[in-house]
Every structure is written in C-alpha cells, then in structure tokens.
Design brief:
The complex is a heterodimer of chains A (218) and B (1474). Chain A is mostly helical and 218 residues long. Chain A has helices spanning 6-21, 23-31, 46-55, 58-62, 98-105, 129-145, 156-164, 166-173, 184-191, 209-214; strands at residues 72-75, 150-153, 181-183. Chain A is globular and about 60 Å long. Chain B is built from 41 helices and 68 strands. The chains are: A mainly alpha (218), B alpha/beta (1474).
Chain lengths: 218, 1474
C-alpha cells in the first residue's frame, strides 16, 4: 500500500506493527472481517518511493527540465519522521533529507531551515483555528526569511494547510511573501514535462504557476 | 592483595593510555622501582586534559599543569612511551603476563626529529584538527600541539588515495591537487612531471580514471583532477614556460627509442634524466604519435603538443624524423650502430576493416586516414554531405566531430546502445550538443553505391547476453534490413599494429596480434629490446602509454646497469586503497570547465574546452577530501634538515613485552551530540560541544582565546549551556550521569565571563550536581559574583534565526509554561562514555564488562578488574573528573606495588655518572652554544651575529651556532668540546629550560661536569617567538639575554646534592576503612605499618554502614578487613591510642604515641575520618519517629523491621549546603535512594517520599535513582528558602512542603521522617593539622597540595591524606583514595636513600641574627630553632622557593644558583646592553 498522507501512513504502520506483535488482536479483528488481514502488507510513503529512484539517478535521467531557480523549503511536518511507537525511521528524525535529495535530483536548490519537522497545526485548523494559524505563521516566516521561493510537501494535509490559509496568515502576521506550496510529485511532473494544467497546479489556493513561469520552467 | 606465583614476578608494568591517570600511575611506579611501558594510541600522551583550557576551582591553565607531568614522563629513564600503539594480545597471569603491542609507523624517526616543524610549514595536505575539535585545520605531517610528548611530528598516512592507485602512470594526483589547493602551482606541476611529461596534453585528452575513482563522487561530483593538470600548464605558460632541465653531466650508454608517441617520449625523457644518450626514430615528419596524428585539434591544439615535445627533446634527446622501422632501418642496424638497448613503441597504425561489401568504394574512409588527413590540415570537402560514422569508440566520435566541423551532416551508427559505447561519455555528450545524430542498435551489412558511396544497408540489432568484454552482445534482428543514404562513410572499428617490421626483427607476437612483452619489465624475447604502449596493449589511452614508457625506462636502466629486473618493483596498486568516510561532509559542487559556445565551434578547430582561472582552480582543488591523509609529495623529506622523515617505514610492527601487571587507562570519549538532532549540532554552526568551547576559550585554540562564534567569528554575548547532552537519558543516549558536566559548564561560564565581561551565561540543567569538595561554593560564586543564570529546565529544540545565525531555544519552566529565548551561542555539555576501544580492550585483556561497556569493578575493590593482575583507572572505570582520575592513577600504582613489591628495582636502569671533575680554583671557561632550532630561532634572530657578539667576551672560550642543539649529534659535540677546550661552564641559548635544561645537564654530567654548571638562555619562547618579523630588535634582545646569562654562568659553582636514608615504615593515623586499606596496601608492598586508632575498635564510621547501593554487605567486608589487618605480621595496631608528637622529615620521621611506643617511619598517612552531623531540626530527638538514614539502615538490616504499608518521608540536605556547612555531603542522595529502594523491595506497599534540593546521584549511581523512580519512590523538590515543616500529630507525623511542579502545598501524613544528615570533619582534624603543619579548608577538612593533580599529597613531603579526613565521600572513593595514599607512600618507602634537590636555600649561621622572619614564612617548616637556641635550617625539608632569602634582613639565606651576586651580575650585564 502506498500512502501519501503522513498521518494515515503513521497510523497504518502502527496498526501493522501491533498486528504483527499481537496475534490475539489479529485474530479478534479477523473474526469480524470477510477479507482477512495478515499484517504483512508492504506499506510505503511517497518518499520511500521517490528517494531510491533519485539516488540511483533514474529521476535525474528522466528530467527534461532542470528546476533551476527553484529554492524550495522542504516541509515534512510533524509526523513523517515521528511514529507513536518504537520503529525504525527511514530518514533523519530532526533533519530529514529525503525531499532534499529528490529536489536536488530535479535540479532545484533546496535550502536548510529550522521548521521542517514542526507541526503546522492542521489537525486543529477546525477546532482551534487561531492556534493552527500561529503555528503555520512560524513556518512561513522562517522559510521566507531563509530566501525560499516555495514550499514542497509530501503530505496532502500539510500541503492543504499551508496552501489554503496562506492569505489569512499573511494578513494576520504581517508576512509579505507569498510562497506557492507544491506537492512533491508536482515538481517531479514539471521536471518531466507534464503540463501544470494536467496536474491542476493552476488550481492551488496560493497561486503556484506564476513562479514556474517566472523561472521559465513552464 | 597478596598473590603468590610459581615463577618470580616481573618488575615491569604495562599501562594502556597516557592520559593524566595513566601518567600518574606511570610516574608513581617508575619512581618506586618499576619499569613502565606506556602504550598510547595517539601520537602523543596527555589525553583529554591537554585539550582543556582552565580547570576549576583555581582557574589554573590545564596545559600548564599537565605539561610538566608530560615532560617528566617523557624524560623518565624507566618509562618507555610506545606512541601510536595498541595492545593486541595478553596472556599469562598476575605477576607474569606477556603482551603483544602493535605499533603503527610514525614515518618519523623519534630520535632524529627535533620538532622544529619545518615540514609542517610546507605540507600541502590539510585535514580537520582533532585537537581543536575540528574547528581548525592541521597538516598531514603534524604535531598534535606544541607541547606534545613525544615532541616529534607524525605523519597521518592511511594508505593510498584512490585517484593515485587508479592512474596507469601512477601520477600523484592527490599531491598535485593538494599543492594546487594551496596555490603552489609550480610544485604541483613538478609532481605531475615526475611521472608524466605530457601534463598539458593529458590535461586535455586523458580518460582520467583518477576522477572515475575519486571518492568525492559518492558525496557529489569527483574533483576535476584532469583539468587541474591542464590549468597548471596554462599557468606555467603565463609564467614564461618550462625551465631547462638539469641533466647528469656524465653520459651513459646509447639507447634507441622507436616511435615518438607518449610511450616512446616518456621512456626517452626518463632515460635522459638518468644520463643515457637517447635517439628517437619517428616514421612521420612530426613527433607525438597518435596524439599528433589522430587527436583532433579542437581537443588538443597542435601547438600545445609541440611545446611538450620540445620540452622533452630539450633533455638532450635526438630525434630522427621520417625513419620507419623496417623500411629505413632494422633492429640489428641499431645494435650495430652501438645502441645498447631498444624500446619499440610504434603504436597501432592500421585501421581494421569493416569486412562488408563495398568497403573499397569512393567516399569510404577508415577513421585513422581521415583523422590523419585532417591533422595534416588536408581537409576533405564534406560541405552539405551526409556522413555516416560506424563505430562507438573515441576514434568514431573524433571522426564524427571532425566531419561535423567540415560541414557534414553526421550520423553515428553503432551496434549496441549508447550506454555500451566505449568512448568517453563526455565526448559523446559534446557530440550530441554539436548536433551529431546517433543511430544505435544498427550494424552495417553492405555499403551501397555505384563506384561512389550512396548509402549503407544496415540490420537492426538487439542486445543479448554479455560477451567476453562484459558488454551485452548485439544480435541481429532477422529481416530488419534498412538503408541509410549518405555520401561518405567513415569506419572506426578498431586499429592494430603493423606486424611486418616487428616480425622481421624476430620479436614474438601474441595471439591478439600485439607484441609479447613481460608484464613487469616490458622485455621482449629479443635481448635488449623492450616494447610498450599500444603496440603491446592494443589501442589504449595516452596515460597508459606514458605509464608503460616510464616502466620501460626503469627496465632499460636496470638492464644496462646489470641490476635485478624484478626486485622491488612494487606498484601502487599493491598498497592499501583508502576509502574515506564521507558521512556528515558538506556537499560542494564541481567547478564546470568553461567551454566554447556551440555556435563558435562550427567549421573551425578552435579548442572547445577553455582553462580554469587561478581562483577556480584553487577552489576546485580544495574540494579534494585527501582520502589517504598524507599525499606522499615528499616535500617534507626535502624540508627536514634533521633527515628524520622516512616514508619507507613498515606500516606496523609488533612488540612483545613481558610484564608483571597491566593498568588500563584508555580514558573516555565525549558523547557525539549529532545523535540529539533537535539540538542542531552539526547543522547550525553556532552550536558547539563543550570540548569545542574549551578550545574556543583556550589561548592556544582556534581564536587565541577570544570568545568567538565558529559560524561568523562574531563575539557572542548571550551564551547558553545545555546540560546532560548524552547523559541521564536511557532511551536516546547514555543512562548514567557523566559526573563532570555541571562543574565544567559552570567553570566555562565563569571563564567566558572573565574573557569578556559582556557575556551573559545561562546554564540549562536538571539537577545541579556540585557534589565535590568546595563545588557548591564555586557554583554560588558563579551565581553571585559572575551573574551566571541557572535555569532548571531542559531544552527541547534549538533553531537558527535566519539571517543572524543566532539560536532560539525552546524550553518549559517548572510550572509548565513554554518559553522561547534567543542566544548567540549554544554550548552542549556533552557527557562521557567509555572509550570507543573499551570493548575491544576488555576482550583482548580478558576482563568482564558491564552492560554499559565499563569494566566490571566492585565498591570494595574499585580499581581491580575481573582478571587478577589487571587494574583499571580513570574515566574508563566510570565517569569521573581529573582529581579522582589522578587519585585512581596513584591507587592502581599502589595496587601494582602491593602485587609486585618484591620485584622492585629488578628491571629498572640507573644512569651511570662519570666521576665529577674538580673545577674549584679554575677560572671560568665558558662554552656558549646558540641554537637555530631549525628556523624557529634563526628565522627571527641573527644567530651568526649573536655568536660573533659573545665569542670574544672574557671567559668565553668557545661559541658556536648549532642547527638543533638538542639533537643527538649536538650532545656529542658539546661533550667533545668540553673535553677538548677544557670548558667548565656551559650556556645553551635555545628554547625553554622547562623541557630542555635536564637534557643538557645530563650531557655535561656525562662529560664530567657538575650539572649545576649549566644555564639556559631562552631566546625562543622569550624572544624569537614573540618578535617575529623584527629581526634587528629580536637579535639585540637575544644578545642581551645571552650576555646577562653569561655574567651569571661565570659565577656558577658546583653544587653537591645530599641524600638521606629512609626508614622503611609507614604511620597510618586512623583505623577506619581508609586507614586499614592504606595500611594493608603498604604492608603488602613489603613495608612495616603502624595504625594508630583513638577508639578501642577498628572500623570508624563504617561500623554504622550496612549496605552498599549494589546490595553488598558492608559489615561482612569490614569484618574481613579487620581480620586481615590484625593477622598481617607487618601491621602493628595501636588502638585506644593517639599521636603525641612527630618529629623529622620525609623519610625520617619519629613519632611518639600516647601508649608510650616510639616509631621510626618514612611516611605518614592521615586517615582520621569524619563524623556524622547530629541534627537539631525536624523534631529529631523530640519524636521517636524522626530518625536518621543511619538509624533507618540499622532498622532495615534487622529482620521483619517493617510494618506493611508504612509511609516514609526522607528529607535531604539536613545540615548540608547551608550555613554553617555550606557544602554538599556527597553521600546522602545515594544513601536515601539506597534505603528507599530497600524499603520498596521489602514492602512494595510502603510509600516513600524523598524531599530534595538536587538529586546528586552522580556517575553510575544514576541507575539507583532511576530504579527508585521505577519502584514508585516519589521525589519532591524543595527550595532552601522554603524548607519542609514537620509536626507531630498523635502517632503520626505531618510534613508540609511546597511542590514546584504542582505549584501548591503538599501535606504528607507519615509514620516516619528520615533525615539525610551530612558529614562533618572529625573533631581531631584541627589538632592533627596543627601538629603536622598541614592546612584545612574553610569547612575544616584537610587541604591537599593541589586540588587537581595532587589529591592525596600535602605540600610537606612524605605526608598523605585519605578518606573522610579529606572531604565527604562514598566508601568506594574512600578505598580508592586510601590505595592512592599507599601508592604515594610506596614511592618514598621504596628508596633506600632520598636525594635532596640542589636548588635549596643555604643558611649562614654566622650572618643569622635569629630574628625568626624565615621561621614564620617558610611553608615547609625547614628553618627550626636548634639546640643552641638559634635558627638552624633543615635542608631536607627545603623546597628552594626562596621566600626566606627574600625576607632575611641579614641575607643569611641564599638560594643555590639564584644567589644575589648572580642576579646582580645578570642585571648589570643586561643594563649594559641597553
């Protein structure tokens, strides 16, 4: 199973681990299921798919358009490298590098910054919007101050949260920059020549095609 | 410990580790009659302490303290330092071990190297400087730090870099890249030319296997090695070209070289350099072979090649053009003409045919002919013609790109895919850029056309299984024939040699149609004929041909000189290739070489690749990772005037040692904080480790002691320390407390503040563990006097502020509120962990380890490893600070003395000193030796002038300048001159007397002079080093210094040194655990011991102790120890008795006891113990339910002592850490934890609360704290300003305390309140102190001679301290200190006589007025009132400090060698010099 959302990915991994270590639980659950679970299904995040291909050079080779001029702040969010139980993390917990590897292979120049694994408050965006906005604002401010010209994410929830509320945050916290928020596969697509329209990059809440045009990437 | 063995015990000891602990043990043992082998893995001794800045509490410089010790160890006659060594095996048993030591080569002769560092100045390779914690760089040949012992440099050589190994010509890429990086282009080019006379050509056309293997490729991109070579030649051209070579004058035999390609020309040059007369025969009218004929100009301009050919021919090489082997001459002809050897390097000149129909048609070219035509500028007209090139090698690409330039529309047809093409990938890329088409997977079957080519017929191919070349085999697809139209076909399949003339010469040809030559020597079957290059290998690269040319030259030289053809022809590939660890290295992209724009390439042959600028070249070269450390450029060899460097040393040798005991002191490793990613170490440049901060503070550190940030050099103001990084964290790091961090952080904060008043230090901590002697006072001073802010909070994240590189720390206050605060610099107080070799060491030595990889020891035998005869010390035994490490150093020495006592002096050597010459009555005849110290002195001071200025001064009979006055040959010279010239006073003007005076004193002693007839004038540290660039002034100052010293030397007199006998017995005052342990150790060493105990029983305070924290039984141990003491025939116990008085001095004390006995003894150990504080607070004595920990312990020791479900409240720090006892009693925290665990283990339903101020379960004791928490013991912090209150309410006690976590008052209803009472000095301490003239600290404990390095000594010699008399401590620490005192005592008692120093005060009774001034000020009590009632002087006690001489109004005291007349003479002479 291939799971883009960090939270879904994390929860599924934990369930898997519990099922693997607790045969009784597995039995109880299977008792109520027509299609039995084994707890042995392979579960992969989007980075586990992309990173090895970037490292082997495949992605670089297939790149038609080098993403020169793109300076993304790679935003992993709080769950991509942190699991609620003891299990191996495929990347550096505090300073993950997966997205940086993929972006570099595409020709972009990702930059180091301080908030890549901080919580954006997506989970609280409904019940405590103010708190969520203040968390996202910190992330925005640091990325902008470091000179990023966009965000890249691997989690749809993070992507959504950074994208949708950006105008509100900018207004409330006095941030002048506006940073398009790309999902990592969108950048892979651009580099491989897929049209932004096809990937609906033109339908982001925070305008996302202008930068690409400005950098002559589309 | 007493062990009897079958064989006699050995009198030598092996010590692993030369840190402060190992050094202390080595000195104690060597000073008391044992031979010591000190094995040190690094190039020098000194350990971690040598890297520290200052030490607390005194603020002494660590280096200043440790350096004299290192010098003592280094110069000790009976200590052998084995640096760069490791133990690899250990067999045998206590008393008789055999150890094997593996010694890594230093590549520097320790005896010859003077440490002048001339080599260091010139070494081009840099690496992170470990000593500066990677904050700065060092060179490959280096000395760890200026004061290192041994002082010789060492070469960091780890093998061979991959780039060098891969070069077929063995060109030293690593070296020339390193030299280029440091801007030394001429030297770099010199390195290239050693192996390759074609740097400009190879810098353009080489296939550079060096880059393919460059380790940097695994990090980002390989270093652009090839183009750097080209850059060097470009640079040389700009400088005016190559200098004329220096050739041997005498000429050797004639040699013929056939073929002027890279192989032939390399061979010719190498032979010419050796002095042979070389003639080159070339078939064509130009030289250069394939380089000239086939490589197109846009890759290699003809002019460039010709310049290189000319440079080679300038080596007096004759060349005959248009002379072809076979048609113009034969091999036999050459022999007849007197050529003694012949090198055949004619290359492969014949294109291989395609072997398809139509190959003869007009318009079909073979690539060689095509390229050759173009090279001769006879360009075929290809304008608007369709050209098909068949093949995928470099010849094919070259042909295609040439054809393109001639206007053709070019397509390359190749059988396999692009991936399999044998050409260089970058050539293929460029051809695509230039617009050349590719048609892969097609094979021509027929060339079509009617006389003239009109097209080719091809078959489509597909890839099959790999063939013998390892590439996929192309298979034809049946029926896929197709036609490609074209006007010109160029076939570029392959080439071969023209075989006829070779065959005619009788030279054997291989089945592959190449010349058959010996793989190593390149000799053919014909005597005197050698062959190399393509003619042997088939078509290959320029650099391969160059390599073979060089090998042929070596072979021909050996052949003509009659040398062994095969011996010692080691190739680089036989040596170890180094794979550099690239983890954590920063990426930096390769500098692209500028290229001609595509538009400018059409229809011309302008060079496509343009060179690097100087700046680019240096930047690109700096990307080199220096995989192998040393690059073997050999520049150090040339620089070393002492001839000490030897790169040929075997990389390892094994040394077998027979020893009696082993001491393991490998020390510690600081925790790697990268593991704690949230703290940002390695990510944010202004986050440093505490050890890095030590270097930042150090005057010899990277910023010369100016507190600066590594990121940008700014001076930080707000500095945060984060404690417990890597400690007290069982989940993410190490579970133990590292013992030292609280105090070193406090010290660093204080010192930083002293360096820069603006600094605002903040320390984030969990518990402030200031548990040691006077530690709390230091912390209080830091708080109150230095304004250090202590924040009881752990930091959860460190983030960098964009733009400023400041750091934001996130932490929570005790009440839970979240804070963010900005700092300029963050210091991570990293913890200690066992040395990284700890596990391996334990395995080799066969000792048990704990799960934490510390060696297993017990509280009762804290320095004994599990295997008998092996002892452990220092931070290897458990985390600890410097004084405790030193203490353990002496303790293990004591243990070894006890084990091997009978073998003392059996393996030591004594210096034989010749009979001293009587110089009395002789006029002073001075020998003055002025040292150049390489360039250290001579670079600044005009040493020749200095010699001139002093050589004719009255009294000077000889003055001379020496390159290195400390070298072995200089010593011989000085000795010889003393004899020949009748010199009777010697002055050396050189470095510091601290390190070098003893060496020269030994030398003049060997020449028969009294060693006090020597002086040293420091013209390095005090002159050349502090005035660089001021030659005139420095020379004048040096003249002044030397003249002043000459004035003094003339007045030197021989000094006779006295010795006194030693009474081989020891007095131990106090019969507690400390006294008994020390007494037993001394007794086992073979000396008599008297224990004086005022009480009726032995045992002291330990009689009230029942359990150790690990559960072992103290009472049982005590009983055993008392029995052991009572039954030892060497120990006399005087219980119920006290010392009445002690007279005498070290080695000769006489003590009268209250029981009337008189004891003669040589040493004294004061182990007078302490007492427990008797509390007056918290209802103690008022309520029976309020008890002390001791009383609780007694209660717990009794059976069924506990009722079920009782509630205990323990209150810590009762009578400690507040006036009048402003110190931590050290033992109470683990006492409380130990008893709490005992309660919970006996009755899990019992409830235990511990009210504490800081929990100080330091070191491995942290485990018990955690265990207590796991068992449910509740810890509640209280503040000294808000102490708990205890009230009685009926049968229960009420305890009220404030809980800072809950922020509210806590009321606990309990059955028992247990008071953790502190310790106090024993009431007799003052009296004893007075008696022995030893001082006490403010709290009343004995004050040791030096809190860091002399923790069991007193300033008065022969008296030592152990146990609670010194300070509060735990039982294991008391035992350690007792063993240490025994060890120190053993050093004195082991001598039959003790020498008294010559530098002492001399007292003249005739001048003395007995005013008692001296008597009052002498710290050692050496002036005394004699039987005549007048002042007398005990010279044995005198330490030569000179205070008496200063204060004596009658000048009755004069210190030897510092007499008033001598000082005044110096001043006069100095004043005269201006």
């Amino acid at each position: 199973m291939f799971i883009p959302c960090s939270s879904c990915y994390s929860r599924t991994l934990v369930s898997q681990k519990r099922l693997a270590s607790d045969p009784e639980l597995l039995e109880t659950i299977n008792a109520g299921l027509a299609q039995k679970v084994t707890g042995r299904m392979k579960i992969r995040s989007i980075l586990e798919l992309l990173v090895p291909r970037a490292q082997s050079g495949i992605i670089g080779e297939r790149t038609i358009k080098k993403l020169e001029g793109l300076k993304p702040a790679c935003y992993y969010g709080c769950l991509t490298t942190r699991f609620p139980c003891d299990m191996e993390v495929p990347d550096d917990v505090e300073n993950p590098q997966g997205m940086e590897i993929v972006c570099s292979a595409l020709g972009a120049k990702p930059l180091d910054w301080g908030y890549k694994t901080d919580c954006c408050g997506a989970a609280a965006s409904v019940n405590d919007a103010a708190m969520s906005l203040s968390l996202t604002a910190k992330i925005m401010k640091d990325a902008a101050a470091r000179g990023a010209n966009c965000f890249v994410t691997t989690c749809p929830m993070c992507q959504f949260n950074l994208d949708v509320y950006q105008d509100e945050i900018r207004e409330k916290f006095g941030i002048s920059e506006r940073l398009p928020v790309y999902f990592i596969t969108e950048l892979v697509g651009i580099a491989m020549g897929i049209s932004p329209h096809e990937m609906q990059i033109d339908r982001h809440f925070t305008e996302a095609t202008g930068l690409l045009k400005e950098l002559q990437l589309i | 410990m007493s062990v009897t063995t079958a064989a006699p015990k050995r009198g030598s000891v092996l010590i692993i580790g030369g840190g402060i602990g190992g050094m202390q043990a080595a000195l104690d043992l060597a000073d008391s009659g044992f031979k010591v082998h000190l094995v040190q893995k690094d190039s020098c001794i000194g350990g971690i302490m040598s890297a520290l800045d200052k030490t607390f509490p005194t603020g002494d410089c660590a280096m200043c303290m440790i350096s004299p010790k290192m010098v003592d160890v280094g110069r000790h006659l009976n200590i052998d330092i084995h640096s760069g060594s490791e133990i690899v095996s250990l067999s045998g048993e206590a008393g008789n071990f055999e150890a094997a030591i593996c010694k890594k080569a230093r590549y520097v002769d320790l005896k010859k190297c003077t440490g002048c560092e001339a080599c260091v100045q010139k070494c081009p390779v840099t690496a992170d400087k470990e000593f500066d914690q990677n904050l700065t760089k060092r060179t490959a040949v280096n000395r760890r730090y200026a004061q290192a012992v041994p002082g010789a440099v060492t070469i960091d050589k780890q093998g061979v870099s991959p780039c060098r190994i891969e070069c077929p010509a063995e060109v030293n890429a690593h070296a020339y890249v390193a030299l280029t990086a440091s801007g030394r282009f001429a030297e770099a080019l010199e390195v290239v030319r050693r192996n390759n006379p074609f740097p400009a050509s190879c810098g353009r056309v080489c296939t550079h296997p060096c880059e393919t293997e460059c380790r940097r490729k695994d990090l980002d991109d390989p270093v652009s090695i090839c183009y750097l070579k080209r850059f060097l030649t470009d640079w040389e051209d700009r400088q005016g070209g190559v200098k004329k070579p220096e050739l041997p004058v005498e000429k050797l035999e004639k040699v013929a070289v056939i073929g002027s390609g890279p192989a032939g020309m390399t061979c010719a040059r190498d032979l010419a350099l050796k002095g042979y007369k070389v003639t080159v025969f070339e078939r064509e009218s130009v030289a250069g072979g394939a380089m000239a004929l086939y490589i197109p100009e846009y890759r290699l301009p003809k002019e460039t090649l010709q310049k290189e050919i000319d440079t080679i021919l300038a080596h007096d090489i004759e060349i005959k053009y248009n002379s072809a082997l076979g048609s113009d001459f034969t091999v036999d002809d050459l022999k007849k003409q007197g050529y003694k050897a012949i090198f055949v390097a004619i290359g492969t000149q014949k294109s291989i045919k395609l072997r398809v129909d139509g190959e003869e048609k007009e318009g079909v070219w073979d690539s060689l002919s095509f390229l050759k035509k173009s090279a001769m500028k006879e360009y075929p007209d290809l304008k608007n013609k369709k050209v098909i090139v068949i093949g995928g090698g470099n010849a094919a690409i070259d042909s295609a790109r040439v054809a393109k330039r001639l206007g053709g529309d070019v397509t390359i047809v190749y059988r396999r895919t692009c991936d399999e093409m044998p050409c260089n990938s970058w050539e293929l890329e460029e051809s695509e850029i230039e617009g050349i088409h590719l048609h892969p997977l097609a094979s021509p079957t027929k060339i079509l056309g009617d006389g003239k080519v009109s097209g080719i017929e091809c078959l489509n191919m597909e890839l099959g299984a790999p063939d013998e070349s390892g590439r996929a085999c192309p298979l034809p697809v049946d029926g896929s024939n197709f036609v490609m139209n074209c006007d010109v076909v160029i076939t570029a399949i392959s080439q071969e040699m023209e075989a006829e003339p070779v065959k005619a010469a009788g030279i054997a040809i291989s089945p592959r149609r190449n010349i058959e030559a010996d793989e190593t020597t390149l000799a053919t079957n014909v005597d005197g004929v050698f062959a190399g290059g393509d003619v042997v290998t088939g078509p290959a690269t320029v650099v391969e041909a160059v390599g073979m040319g060089a090998r042929a030259a070596e072979s021909i030289h050996r052949y003509l000189r009659g040398l062994d053809m095969h011996a010692d022809r080691k190739r680089l590939a036989d040596r170890e290739k180094v794979i550099k660890n690239i983890e954590g290295l920063k990426r930096s992209l390769r500098k692209d070489i500028p290229r001609l724009p595509v538009a400018e390439r059409a229809e011309n042959f302008k060079e496509v690749e343009l060179g690097f600028s100087e700046e680019d070249a240096v930047q690109e070269a700096s990307r080199c990772l220096s995989c192998a450390g040393c690059c073997e450029c050999m520049i150090c060899v040339a620089e070393c005037q002492a001839k000490a460097i030897n790169h040929e040393m075997e990389s390892e040798e094994v040394l077998n040692l027979d020893i009696g005991a082993v001491i393991l002191a490998p020390g510690l490793n600081p925790y790697d904080p990268k593991v704690r990613g949230e703290l940002g170490f390695g990510r944010w440049p202004n986050v440093v480790t505490s050890l890095q901060f030590e270097r930042i503070l150090s005057a010899s550190g990277p910023y010369q002691g100016v507190v600066s940030r590594p990121g940008d050099g700014k001076h930080p103001v707000r500095i945060a320390w984060i404690q417990c990084v890597g400690s007290r964290d069982p989940k993410n790091a190490n579970p133990w407390c590292s013992s030292v961090c609280c105090m070193y952080a406090t010290k660093q904060a204080v010192i930083a503040k002293e360096h820069d008043k603006r600094i605002e230090p903040t320390i984030f901590y969990m518990d402030m563990r200031a548990y040691g002697k006077d530690f709390d006072k230091y912390v209080e001073r830091a708080k109150n006097e230095y304004g250090v802010r202590y924040m009881r909070s752990m930091v959860s994240a460190v983030r960098e502020v964009p733009g400023t590189s400041d750091l934001i720390l996130r932490y929570a206050l005790e009440d839970g509120s979240l804070m963010e605060e900005t700092f300029d610099l963050v210091v991570l107080s990293v913890g200690l962990e066992p040395h990284k070799d700890a596990a391996k060491l334990a395995e080799v030595c066969g000792i048990e380890m704990t799960d934490y990889l510390f060696p297993r020891t017990s509280g009762f035998e804290p320095v004994n490893a599990s295997r008998e005869g092996i002892f452990v010390t220092g931070a290897y035994q458990g985390p600890k600070d410097i004084p405790e490490t030193v203490m353990q150093g002496s303790a293990v020495a004591g243990q070894v003395m006890a084990l091997l006592g009978e073998a003392r002096w059996s393996e030591t050597i004594k210096k034989e000193i010749p009979v001293e010459k009587d110089v009395s009555g002789e006029e002073p005849r001075l020998g003055v030796f002025v040292c150049s110290c390489g360039i250290n002195i001579a670079g600044t001071v005009d040493v020749a002038r200095l010699v001139e200025e002093v050589k004719d001064l009255p009294g000077v009979v000889h003055a001379e300048n020496l390159l290195y006055s400390c070298s072995q040959d200089s010593q011989e010279k000085i000795k010889q001159l003393i004899k020949e010239e009748g010199i009777n006073r010697v002055l050396v003007a050189s470095c510091t007397p601290r390190t070098h005076a003893p060496l020269f004193q030994d030398t003049i002693q060997e020449a028969g002079l009294n060693k006090y007839l020597f002086e040293l004038a420091d013209i390095r540290e005090q002159c050349s080093w502090c005035h660089p660039g001021h030659k005139e002034e420095a020379t004048q100052k040096a003249v002044g210094l030397v003249k002043a010293m000459i004035a003094k030397v003339k007045l030197l007199q021989p000094i006779k040194t006295e010795t006194v006998g030693v009474s081989p017995a020891c007095l131990v005052v106090g019969g507690g655990i400390a006294g008994m342990t020390a007494a037993l150790s001394v007794a086992y060493q073979g000396f008599d011991v008297h224990i004086v105990e005022m009480e009726k029983e032995l045992g002291g305070l330990s009689r009230n102790l029942h359990l150790m924290p690990d559960g072992s039984d103290v009472q049982e141990f005590l009983k055993k120890r008392i029995t052991e003491v009572r039954s030892n025939r060497r120990i006399t116990v005087h219980t119920g008795s006290e010392v009445t008085k002690t007279e005498g001095f070290v080695g000769n004390f006489k003590t009268l006891l209250t029981d009337g006995s008189t004891i003669d003894h040589g040493a004294i150990i004061l182990a007078t113990g302490g007492v427990e504080y008797e509390p007056a607070e918290y209802l103690y004595k008022e309520s029976e339910q309020v008890i002390t920990q001791r009383e609780l312990e007694r209660k717990l020791a009794a059976a069924n002592a506990l009722k079920s479900g009782e509630r205990f409240v323990m209150i810590q720090c009762v009578g400690s850490r507040e006036e009048p006892a402003q110190y931590c009693s050290r033992v109470c925290c683990q006492d409380a934890v130990k008893n709490a665990i005992a309660i919970k283990e006996k009755d899990p339903s019992a409830q235990v609360f511990i009210l504490y101020r800081d929990i100080r379960t330091y070191g491995l004791r942290e485990d018990y704290y955690r265990k207590a928490r796991d068992l449910g013991v509740i810890f509640v912090r209280y503040d000294v300003d808000r102490k708990p209150e205890v009230t009685q309410s009926g049968s229960r006690l009420n305890v009220i305390t404030w809980d800072y976590m809950l922020n509210k008052e806590l009321r606990i209803d309990a059955e028992w309140v247990v008071l953790s009472t502190g310790l106090r000095p024993h009431p007799t301490t003052d009296k004893i102190g007075e008696m022995y003239k030893v001082t006490r600290n403010a709290d009343g404990y004995f004050l040791e001679a030096h809190v860091k390095l002399r923790p069991v000594d007193f300033p008065s010699e022969g008296i030592f301290v152990a146990g609670l008399a010194h300070a509060p401590k735990n039982l294991d620490e008391t035992i350690t200190q007792a063993l240490a005192a025994a060890g120190r005592g053993g050093v004195i008692l082991s001598h039959e006589r003790l020498a008294v120093s010559g530098i002492i005060a001399k007292h003249r009774k005739d001048l003395c007025m007995s005013c008692l001034s001296c008597f009052r000020v002498c710290p050692f009590g050496s002036p005394y009132i004699g039987e005549d009632g007048k002042v007398a002087h005990n010279e044995v006690k005198c330490m030569g400090c000179g205070i008496c001489a200063g204060i004596c109004p009658a000048k009755a005291f004069q210190v030897n060698n510092f007499r008033d007349d001598q000082m005044l003479a110096m001043i006069d002479a100095a004043v005269e010099c201006g």
